[in-house]
Amino acid sequence: MSTFKYEEEVFVRMGYKYNVSCSETLSKNWTPSAIDCYNLGCRCSKCNLYKIYFSDSVNKCKMKETVIELVRKLGAPKDEDLERLQV
Predict the structure, then answer these.
(1) Which domain holds residue 33?
(2) Is 29 part of a structural domain of the chain?
(3) Residue 85 falls within a domain, yes or no?
(4) How far is CA 22 from the centre of its chain?
(5) Where are the alpha helices (DSSP H) in 1-87?
(6) Could you tell me the pTM of the whole model?
(7) Digitized pLDDT (tens) for each residue of the chain, 87 residues in all
(8) Residue 9 neighbours by CB distance under 10 Å
(9) Is 36 within a domain?
(10) Which of 3, 15, 22, 30 is least surrounded by CB atoms within 10 angstroms?
(11) Quick check: is 83 in a domain?
(12) Whole-angstrom Cα distance, residue 48 to residue 87?
């Protein structure tokens, strides 16, 4: 089974929807914030950025939708994504 198909099935089992309408510019490359969100399993309750910027706000964090779209387009983040971002 391909990695992409496996990741897709994991997200389906977790109840995520794929009719995502996130910005094209946000879903082209893995960013440090997107990788952090992915590593937390897209659980806002564990995210420091969510706690700082969105917990008491009427605005909603869209990182979960962006991460889902990145996994659909690029697959899970790879070691080279992390290396590229740490330079």
Answers:
(1) 3-77
(2) yes
(3) no
(4) 11
(5) 3-13, 32-39, 48-53, 63-74, 79-86
(6) 0.64
(7) 444 455 555 555 555 544 444 555 556 888 888 999 999 999 998 999 899 888 888 888 889 999 999 999 999 998 777 777 665
(8) 11
(9) yes
(10) 15
(11) no
(12) 23
